[in-house]
Amino acid sequence: MMKINQQIIEFRVERDSMGERQIPSSAYYGIQTLRAIENFPISGIKPLPTYIDACVTIKKATALVNGELGCIPQPIAEAIVQAAEEILRGDLRDQFVVDIYQAGAGTSHHMNVNEVLSNRALEILGDEKGNYQRVSPNDHVNYGQSTNDVIPTAIRIGGLLALRRTLYPALDKVIASLHIKAEEFIDIVKSGRTHLQDAVPVRLGESFRAWAQILTEHKTRLELAQTDLTRLGLGGSAAGTGLNTHPDYKTRVAEVLSELLNQPLQSAPHMMAAMQSMAPFVNVSGAIRNLAQDLVKISHDLRLMDSGPKTGLKEIQLPPVQPGSSIMPGKYNPVMAEMTAMVCFQVMGYDNAVSLAAQAGQLELNVMMPLIAYDLIHSIEILGNTIAALTDSCIVGITANGDRCRSYAEGSLALVTALNPHIGYLNAAAVAKESLETGKSLRQIVKERNLMTEEELAQVLNLEQMSAML
After folding, report:
1. What is the value of pTM for the model shown?
2. Residue 85 half-sphere exposure, CB side, CA atoms within 13 Å?
3. What pLDDT was estimated at residue 250?
4. Is residue 64 within 8 Å of 77, Cβ to Cβ?
5. 20 to 30 Å CA-CA from 186: which of 52, 210, 231, 308?
6. Homologous superfamily of domain range 149-247+270-402
7. Cα–Cα distance for residue pair 455/453, rounded to 1 Å
8. What is the pLDDT of residue 2?
9. Ranges of the chain whose pLDDT falls below 50
């Protein structure tokens, strides 16, 4: 018992292979978690809720299967399952306390999960926390398991959960919103731009439709990449051989997890391979990075098209969501697009870290899994949250400056491109050069040079016809 700030803190004593330690009696974690807290005061960043969900769901499934197969007593299995369900509903989340930068492979976090489930199961059975002879973190909660097969499985499930909960819904919504804007702006003609220079006219609506198509294709790539996450190495135990597991365990636990998560999961064809290779995570991370790169491009396009209001393009108006300057009154900045780019840069950095960690495995294990777990799941979730915020606070409220768009389109020197088949490339280049030097319109110069008639010019320089998609 200890008095801190006039509060009396009570302790229990727990033992492990290294000795005894005092644990706060109120804590559901145990001695191995305490050692990890002391050993890794690194970032202050705790495990992501989605990752906790993944780990606890695995423990629920393994308790169900091990109880069903007679590997652990049924009352203990039921208590572990109940404890897991409580945590999945949101209880005891403050008990997962190990820094994300921790012991290799994720042993510290894994034991944190095992200890919390063990101690809550003891309470459910009417016993005291810390009585591991009755419900052991290792012998019961972790029966037939190892950090080495649980953690790569948790990364897989965490990635699948993050995609389904966060990123896919956000992508579906932004794609639908872009299609709505495409229809709204389909009759607005604007100047195209290549190399940031004048190009042939395009429809503003088609610009939005192009973005929708780009994001649709990224979702397809992600759905293909995520199939790598559905093959589980759970049941491989310490080195992929299945040591200390029931013969039916690996197949049955994959079936139970499929039911719990409503995902088509299956046992991997080779447990050792599933444990050693981080390629599935690199594949998904790469697809996330690829999406982020195009999102940066879209965010930059939005900023350019909204630039101004007096000295920029100002073809569109992004919704102002907050004052943009501490010194310049009346200024509004494209903050949602700016935020989007910053998050995308972070995602690209995470992908690089995942790639480096994935190649750092040796022999039967990759010990860099805690880094991969956090960076991959966090990438998915912050990108999904970013897309959702960009959609709600920016995309849906965009308006078009049709007159400005038309003015740029009509004044673009690139309209001379349409004259090529009628007057030849060299004549067209000469007309463009004279227009730039004199300020005369293309129409005027072509007529002065007797290259085309008024009627022919009217047909060839029809902006609606030039900008229509074939």
Report:
1. 0.94
2. 10
3. 97
4. yes
5. 308
6. Fumarase/aspartase (Central domain) (1.20.200.10)
7. 5
8. 57
9. none
Question: Are 26-143 and 149-247+270-402 in the same CATH fold?
Answer: no
| Complete DSSP assignment for 326-339 | SSSTT-B--HHHHH
First to last CA, the chain: 80
* Residues carrying an active site annotation: 325
CA distances from 323 to 179, 320, 428 (A): 29, 8, 47
Question: Looking at residue 379, what is its pLDDT?
Answer: 98
pLDDT tens-digit profile of 152-181? 999 999 999 999 999 999 999 999 999 999
- DSSP collapsed to 3 states, 203-235: EHHHHHHHHHHHHHHHHHHHHHHHHHHHEECCC
Three-state SS letters, 66-119: HHHCCCCCHHHHHHHHHHHHHHHCCCCHHHCCCCCCCCHHHHHHHHHHHHHHHH
Give the DSSP per-residue string, 242-300: -TT--TTHHHHHHHHHHHHHTS--EE-S-HHHHHH--HHHHHHHHHHHHHHHHHHHHHH
d(CA 51, CA 161): 9
Q: What is the token pair recorded at 100?
A: 């994300």
Largest CA distance in the chain: 102
pLDDT of residue 330: 83
Domain boundaries, the chain: 26-143, 149-247+270-402, 412-465
The structural architecture, per CATH, of the domain 412-465 is Orthogonal Bundle (1.10)
Task: Please return the burial class of 438, using the count of CB atoms within 10 Å of its CB with bins 0-12, 13-18 and 19+.
Answer: exposed
Model pLDDT, residue 44 = 97
Instruction: Kindly write down the DSSP assignment for every residue of 3-44, as one continuous string.
Output: EETTEEEPEEEEEETTEEEEEETT-SS-HHHHHHHHH--SS-
Q: Cα angle vertex 209, ends 204, 213, to 5°?
A: 150
- State the Cα–Cα distance between residues 249 and 149, nearest whole angstrom: 13
* 26-143 topology per CATH: Fumarase C; Chain B, domain 1 (1.10.275)
| Amino acid in position 335 | V
Residues 432-442: tens digit of each pLDDT: 899 999 988 88
Q: Which residue has the tokens 């080495």?
A: 148
Single out the residue of 380, 375, 377, 372 nearest to residue 106, CA to CA. 372
d(CA 145, CA 137): 11
The Cα 413–Cα 193 span in angstroms is 11
